[in-house]
Task: inverse folding
């Protein structure tokens, strides 16, 4: 089945993790690709791999925090591939730490990538998406549903993105553009080996055990199916679905457990809203 035959998909953060896996998954479904990330060497390698699969690809080194970079990426996609039908705002990272140890600049840096990077992607791609009645896919997080201690900056960004997507869904539907919010749980990715400035540390230990992480390729296939069916939201991983369900229906229980866990770690207890 080639559900994206004749379509062009732009993916930010395509050089690793879910973004890289999505590139392969969309290509397997017949899509041509605009691959966007900061690490050009990785993009070129992925582009060559996609082309060996018989698909076309354009690699664009860009940073979602810089004004104008996404417009250049979309322009390169249109010039090289003729159109853009799907834009996937996937680039992101996580600022971690107790609120007492973070500064306003940490929160600003987090929102610049995870929130304003999504906005830059949308505004750059929107004319093409409207013209082609396409799709805007945003990779959020279960952390946009379930707040946890030491992740206030990251949760803030993902809650914001969730609200943004829910707000613009009916607006863009008027133009035939679908909005799909993807909320992954723990998926194989480099995101947990990035520091608070978004820099990757190859030797950093992933705090999440491998058995709890969904393979990136599996998550990518689920995202591609959700895009094809133009779903409003998909929560990826069973533990992610369970966490969202639990917090939606029993928030008091989640707060109780998190409060106890925080006390056991010797940190001030987290106060419920």
Result:
């Amino acid at each position: 089945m080639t559900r994206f035959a004749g379509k062009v998909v732009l993916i930010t953060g395509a050089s690793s993790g879910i973004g890289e896996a999505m590139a392969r998954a969309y290509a397997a479904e017949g899509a041509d690709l605009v691959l966007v990330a900061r690490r050009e060497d990785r993009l070129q390698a992925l582009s060559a791999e996609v082309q060996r699969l018989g698909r076309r690809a354009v690699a664009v080194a860009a940073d979602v925090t810089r004004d104008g970079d996404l417009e250049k990426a979309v322009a390169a996609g249109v010039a090289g591939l003729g159109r853009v039908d799907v834009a996937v705002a996937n680039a992101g990272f996580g600022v971690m730490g107790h609120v007492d140890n973070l500064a306003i600049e940490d929160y600003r840096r987090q929102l610049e990538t995870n929130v304003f990077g999504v906005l830059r992607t949308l505004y750059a791609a929107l004319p093409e998406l409207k013209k082609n009645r396409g799709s805007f896919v945003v990779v959020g997080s279960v952390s946009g549903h379930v707040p946890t201690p030491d992740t206030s900056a990251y949760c803030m960004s993902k809650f914001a993105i969730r609200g943004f997507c829910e707000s613009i869904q009916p607006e863009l539907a008027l133009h035939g553009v679908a909005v799909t919010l993807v909320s992954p749980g723990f998926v194989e990715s480099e995101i947990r080996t990035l520091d608070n400035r978004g820099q990757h540390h190859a030797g950093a230990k992933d705090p999440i055990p491998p058995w709890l992480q969904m393979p990136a390729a599996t998550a990518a296939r689920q995202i591609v199916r959700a895009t094809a069916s133009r779903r409003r939201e998909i929560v990826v991983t069973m533990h992610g679905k369970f966490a969202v369900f639990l917090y939606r229906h029993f928030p008091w229980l989640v707060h109780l457990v998190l409060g106890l866990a925080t006390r056991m770690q010797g940190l001030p207890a987290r106060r419920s809203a």
Observations:
- The first strand starts at residue 8 and ends at 12.
- Residues 267-273 have pLDDT under 50 and may be disordered.
